[in-house]
Amino acid sequence: MVQQQADAAGIVGFIGAGRLARALSQALQRAQVPVAFVASRQAAHAQAVAGQLPGCAAVDAQTVAARCDLVFMTVPDAAIAPATDALVWHAGQSVVHCSGATEVAVLQAARRAGAQIGGFHPMQAFGADTQAALDSLPGCTVAIEAAAPALAAVLQALAQRLGCVGLSLPPGARVRYHASGGYASQHVHVLLAEAVRLWQSWGATEEQALAALLPLLRGTLKSLARSGVADGMPGPISRGDAGTVRAHRQALQALDPDMRQLYDQLSRRGVALASRAGRLTDAQAEALQAVLEPLPEPPRQ
């Protein structure tokens, strides 16, 4: 059944030849879903992607729109609507963008022409290393949105063929879904940057800090996978250690009050999380909240 639904994709093409298009087109090809055409405003980019795909041709965008049954719009988010509006579509085809945060409604020009529209967003980072992206794709979640059941079934089948987990996303949820990925990806970089700053405050290097912190992060991820968000949470808040939290705040306040404020915001959320999971007694939670009360403003000069 999955094979039949994936085959129902018909002739597949890409408009946009960036990092996501490079990885996704090669992944589809490896999954025996051939990509026939690739287009890009930069002809050299389309040729580079097509050159990695046997039987694939670099063409203009209108040729993709005219000749493909399933078109992946992999242009930058801000360009999806203008690119879609500029092309002539036809009934019976499917037009799908691969943005996490952009609503499917931006493809209305294709829908008005009789095409089915949808979203297909792998929740994975796509960097300059295409092989790394291909290696990380299996097992990741693909957010799928399509009002037409036939298109939803095809996209779910393609996700399975890629070794991914298809997630049916309801209309209007894309921005929240995409923001959640920021917490698990880009915000981790920000938090580690803060940790590196602390190491640098006594003269250590970023390399030394990461050598110590990344094993800690890997252990944390394993604990998350085994025990879940709340039960797997380590650290002084999860064990009700108000004294250590107080010492942390004092040290951070002396170094950078803004860093201490960020620590406070995260810690308050941590207290609430640990409390909901039954990790803290009422007395422990109250003690932590008392320690996390805003510090008095310094006197004005």
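That was protein one. Protein two is written in the same sequence-then-structure order:
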Amino acid sequence: MNDPNAAAAALNSPRRVLFASLIGTTIEFFDFYIYATAAVLVFPKLFFPASDPASATLQSLATFAIAFFARPIGSALFGHYGDRIGRKATLVAALLTMGLSTVVIGLLPTYATIGVLAPIGLALCRFGQGLGLGGEWGGAVLLATENAPPGKRAWYGMFPQLGAPLGFICSGSIFLLLSELLSDDQFFAWGWRVPFIASALLVLMGLYVRLKITETPAFQKALDREERVRVPMLSVFRHHPRALVLGTLLAVATFVLFYLMTVFALSWGTTALGYPRQQFLLIQLFGILFFALTIPFSAQFADRHGRRRTLLWVTAAMAAFGLILAPLFSAGLPGVLLTLALGLSLMGLTYGPLGTILSELFPTAVRYTGASLTFNLAGIVGASLAPYIATWLAKTYGLQYVGYYLTAASLLTFVALWLTHETKEENLTI
């Protein structure tokens, strides 16, 4: 008789699995980041009253935060079906949700055309983006880790993590290109819409790749043993509360660091520090290269020496970085370059093993839901209001308090990691 598990394993070749996990998160994060960039550069001018620019920026950053509150809902919704029906179908639905929400943003009328309905529509679409990413990330990580050979789970698990810097590079590059090719009037009249509408082509490509894969061996074994639970989210809260809380807290500093280095840095750099939009986008793309290059390094270290040990060292370095952030960031162009290079290098080092350790905290029957919830609840705590809080701290108390904010978040994550067990030897088929 033919073995369906063997057939699935043959179809899910390493190259196909890793590309499918990478392409989806790259598209999802591209969609997510073009909103983040537009929330600083475009939306305050076009979707909110222009009478108070500072208030418009804060309101725009508030809509940016909406997605982080939607992401746990997406985790619960898509996680439920991912643990009940399967990883493949759920990943397709999550990608469609994100893609449609992003394209609609590119078609929205502005405040000058429909008044208060413009920011309401923007907020609804941002909520849809959050739902999609809430379901995408966990499924992509499981697609990689549940297909990984022994001793290479962190290496496989870092491929969906690479989608974050690749998505950012693509989003930053397209806004930089538009800024170079178009006048300010053209950019604000229609140019900003191009990345949102063009993302439809990327989504179609991602769907094609996703539809070519089969179910992961670990989930197929759970189906064969009839281990599916009726309501995965309730099972996570009832039977795995420690893993849920510690998993959430150990990811908090990662989110704080990233959104300080991207959204807050772009906002502060182009306003308080006076850098032109094109120049600062180039500076950020330079920093993101360090983010991408350090992810594989930390994944290899985590496979060799353990996830917990790797993340403890990196988190301690993040806490120290917070203490020097303000003087570095204020020290002219060389200081800004060094700040982003250091900060985003640390981001890559903490992000590489993060998906793997979160997925290893939960058994197969609730892994999609559990890993997604921890990651996205951490997004609420660590990222949703990070640009807003950092902007308020910098304007009220000075830039050094933004660094203290990062240090405090890192100490919280360090404690959570200290209380977490090493997951390197966990059996994902159980």
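Residues 1-10 have pLDDT under 50 and may be disordered. Keep this in mind for the problem set.
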